[in-house]
Write a structure and sequence with these properties.
The chain is of the alpha/beta class. It contains 9 helices and 20 strands. The chain has a domain of 205 residues: FAD/NAD(P)-binding domain, CATH 3.50.50.60. Bound molecules: flavin-adenine dinucleotide.
Length: 397
């Protein structure tokens, strides 16, 4: 068969794909990373890279890529607001175009070859996988699909998500000069609970611009643009002067097929996103690295059948599966009892502080859910006896 040959081909140069390519190359595989856009390419994202994501990278992120360090969050719900601040950094804010480009360069440094081009089809021919681009074919032993949510290749491995298994996010970047009302938002982020049932809105400070967005389950946001406009109007943001983009985001914690003969899914393509927070970068990096390792082992063993690749799902499960399931449980709880749950986060310091520990990666979602379950009734009753009433949604702020 003609065309290019390698051991492991990776589709997609986001955090999952570059992490996968880097890992497989570091383990001695010949790796080709396909990215359809020339880097640095634009990427819709709030750009919050949590401490656990940074720890998962396996190398330090240069300071030049950091717009701001984030030590906590101001949480708003109706007329309630609370600042939760920690002595330790919770996340950094980056521009995804530069962050992703840097990660691709790290993969190249490890020996991966990068090719700009869209993979249009993947087929199995005998024991080999053949990837088709517009210009040619590449043959390999294992393919890692890390195409994000918008891709069409993963559908041969797993069924599409239902409306209650994926979220929708809308975002725009607003120049800081246009939002003097957020001038004090420097090393914390703003989170507005209740924008959509169980979802939230955000304002993240990136220095010369703010990332402003909303996210919630698709089934809860049938008209996301309208909700986004209301959210912006409430914050006195002139949405007509900005370009708004939307994107889907899967809910992690849902059972999905992750591998098929010669193929592994990683990152968003595998559905690995925290369903409560919408954090996907951590899981993209972690699943990317695990997929690279499993692919390298399959190449060494000359066996890329589903039985060999199944260890991928098992390793992801051990690394973060439980966490994603509890995040989903929490998201469902927040949807079911929005006013109770969100009021607790926006008014009870112990709850917010505890949650910041989860966001930092120091505590698991399981710990948080159990801890909260034991205390929520008493905290809620205390709030009621203090005369607080739940607002219907963000209006009134
Ligand atoms: C509005 C919004 C805000 C978000 N904010 C945050 C946040 O603040 N923090 C956080 O942790 N997460 C956030 N997320 C989630 C996060 O962006 C994703 O979870 C993360 O980008 C997943 O990484 P990935 O590598 O799996 O996919 P992606 O980052 O989507 O990368 C996929 C890549 O594959 C390429 N590609 C696709 N198809 C092909 C093909 N056929 N051939 C070649 N290349 C292809 C694409 O061009 C793209 O570069 C946000 C998501 C949205 C929508």
């Amino acid at each position: 068969m003609g065309g290019d040959r390698c051991d492991v081909a990776v589709v997609g140069g986001g955090p999952a794909g570059s992490s996968a390519a880097r890992q497989a190359a570091a383990l001695g595989c010949r790796v080709v990373l396909f990215e359809k856009a020339a880097m640095p390419r634009p990427k819709l994202c709030g750009g919050a890279v949590s401490e656990q994501a940074l720890r998962s990278l396996g190398f330090a992120l240069p300071e030049r890529l950091v717009d701001a360090a984030c030590f906590g969050t101001r949480v708003h719900y109706g007329s309630d607001s609370m600042l939760g601040r920690s002595d330790e950094r919770v996340a950094v804010l980056v521009r995804r175009e530069h962050f992703d480009h840097f990660l691709v360069e790290k993969a190249q440094e490890a020996g991966a070859r990068v090719r700009v081009g869209e993979v249009t089809a993947i087929t199995r021919v005998g024991d080999e996988m053949v990837l088709q681009t517009r210009d040619d074919q590449t043959t390999c032993a294992v393919v890692i699909i890390a195409e994000g949510t918008a891709g069409r290749l993963a559908k041969d491995v797993r069924r599409p998500d239902r409306n209650d298994e994926s979220g929708v996010c809308l975002e725009c970047r607003v120049p800081s000069a246009q939002l003097p009302q957020f001038a004090d938002l420097k090393d914390v982020i703003d989170v507005y609970l209740g924008v959509a049932r169980g979802g939230y809105g955000w304002v993240f400070p990136h220095g010369d611009f703010y990332s402003v967005g909303i996210g919630g389950l698709r089934s809860d946001l049938p008209a996301p643009r309208r909700v986004f406009e209301t959210f912006c109007r409430d914050l006195q943001i002139d949405v007509d002067r900005t370009e708004v983009h939307g994107h889907l985001i899967p809910c992690g914690g849902v059972r999905r097929n992750l591998v098929s003969d010669g193929v592994i899914l990683a990152g968003d393509a595998a559905g690995f996103v925290d369903a409560f927070l919408g954090e996907g970068i951590t899981y993209a990096i972690r699943s990317g690295r695990i997929s690279g390792e499993v692919a390298a082992r399959a190449v060494q063993a000359k066996d890329a059948g589903p039985a060999t690749l199944t260890t991928y799902g098992q390793t992801c499960e051990m690394a973060f599966g439980r966490n994603l399931r509890y995040a989903l449980r929490l998201a469902r709880l927040a949807r079911r009892y929005p006013s109770m749950f969100m009021r607790l986060l926006a008014t009870e310091r112990t709850v917010l502080d505890r949650y910041l520990g989860v966001a930092r990666g120091d505590r698991s979602y399981g710990d948080f859910v159990w801890w909260l379950g034991l205390r929520a009734p008493a905290l809620w009753l205390r709030g009621l006896s203090n005369g607080r009433r739940a607002p219907p949604h963000i209006a009134g702020r």
